[in-house]
Amino acid sequence: MMITPYLYEAYLKCPTKCFLRALGEMATGNAYADWVRTQGASYRSRESQRLTQGTTPDERVMGPLATGNVESAKWRLAIDVTVRTNHLESTIHAVERVVSQGRGEPTQFIPIRFIYTDKLTRDDRLLLAFDALVLSETLGREIGLGKIIHGDKPATLEVKTGALASAVRKVTGKIGSLLTSNSPPDLVLNRHCAECEFQTRCRQKSIETNDLSLLSGMTENERTSYRSKGIFTVTQLSYTFRPRKTPKRAKNPAKPRYIALQALAIRENTVYVHGQPQLPDSKTQVYLNIEGLPDIESYYLVGALVVSGGTETFHSFWADQKSDEPTIFAQFVAAIRDLPELQVFHYGNYERIALLKMKARLPECLHSTTDVLLERAINVLSVIHSHLYFPTISNSLKDIGRFLGSERANENATGLQCIVWRNSWNANKAADTKVTLLQYNQDDCRTLKRIVEFMRSFGCTGFLWKIGFPDYFQERSNR
Ligand code: SF4
Asked: Among 16, 89, 266, 441, which residue's beta carbon has the most beta carbons within 10 A?
């Protein structure tokens, strides 16, 4: 079977994805994956047209490349160029032909790839290097340089593809072995799954086998090490946990995460607490959640649930465009800066990074207030990571919130789905899409509040203990 960019790209993310694509397995549906595909196709078409505008019909060609006369050919730009060797094939987005000015120097062929994102990854460079390798072997000449045209602006990045050729060959070798072996690779859930078209299928299969990779906090090395000891399932792992006390004299006690304790919490469907989690008391709590588009460093929605003196108030600050973002952050800072004994709770590092980045875009008179907010900000996830083990496969806000009974307007919505929604809103300004995003953000703030309340609801009784869940829920329903 021919190795194409479609398979090559899949392998870079996950061998199983490559294998399933090669088999022609039906995708099980992923709105984000569909959106990425559509974005990629429309960007490629837009940029191809833009490039061809600068050429006459004689200077451009399309489709398969005639390899016989490339040195004397007239064309300067080729679009959708199909090239193939014995086992590699690519339809390169564009190829630039640059005739050398110096005598005797060969004509240069530069593969071009169009990528819609502002930020590029190593995988993007490797895909370009894959194109360069196939072109090089087809034309029988060295191709040491390629270009990536990317982003909305758009920008051009030159990549020394020659330096990546051996990395490309290594991967194509592995793909070749995978495709000839006819047996599927180990199914290992990973960070890419949320963006993958086979997400539902693979998750279902992993649940059926109770596979270790269901535990999102487990590293690849840990998993390999457990498997070498004959531990393949989450339940098997749960029996390996042995409590360890932190030595009393330890000056800087480590706060390790015991993955086997996570497995035990799942098996017993309870919450374990290791050590003594601390969440400071305050008169006012602000539960902060920020939505953004990571690719372009845009932060378009700030949601803050404020609880003070037994009263709840919700603030939403929405930016129609990037230039509005400093205004909404200034409004947020102004709304909460005078609240008494303020504590800001957020989940993960995203909000802290957003505040730090936005501080640079705010007027100088708001810098010190932003610093105070940052000082009073507590990352609830880091406290959970060090001390709490919920019976959930991940520590995501949604998984833990769901376990604690926090309800959401849309149970299946994710951060990736929000990226799709916001981009769709950018295109059509549909009012219901904005309402959906505001609701999603509110639900995150309320879930965070529920988690913090839960963490405050128990006292610490030892270095390792579990919470009697029926008691906790009974107590809540009696209120
Ligand atoms: S869902 Fe995850 S494990 Fe399955 S093919 Fe995709 S990336 Fe690989």
From this structure: 16
Residue 280: the pLDDT is 85
**Cα dihedral across residues 137, 140, 145, 147: positive or negative:** negative
Pairing outcome for strands 271-274 and 284-293? unpaired
Mean pLDDT is lowest, of 6-10, 22-26, 400-404, 474-478, for 474-478
* Partner residues linked to 345 by β-bridges: 287, 378
Reading the block at residue 7, the tokens are 């398979």
CA dihedral (326, 331, 335, 338) positive or negative: positive
**Which residues on neighbouring strands pair with residue 228, listed in sequence order?**
none
Q: What is the CA radius of gyration of the chain?
A: 27
The residue with tokens 């047996």 is 183
pTM over 0.85: yes
Distance from C-alpha of 248 to C-alpha of 313, rounded to nearest angstrom: 43
In 10 A of CB 39, how many CB atoms?
15
> How far, in Å, from the CA of 17 to the mean position of ligand 1?
5
Nearest CA to ligand 1 atom 4: 202
Structure tokens at 256: 């390790």
More confident residue, 54 or 90: 90
Q: Which range in 52-61, 249-258, 358-367 is most confidently predicted, on average pLDDT?
A: 358-367
Report the alpha-carbon distance of residue 270 to residue 196 in Å, rounded: 31
Query: How confident is residue 60, by pLDDT bands cut at 50, 70 and 90?
Result: confident
Q: Tokens standing for 40?
A: 């990629």
Beta bridge partners of 359: none
Q: How far is the CA of 30 from the centre of ligand 1 (A)?
A: 12
How far is the centre of ligand 1, averaged over its atoms, from the C-alpha of 200 (Å)?
9
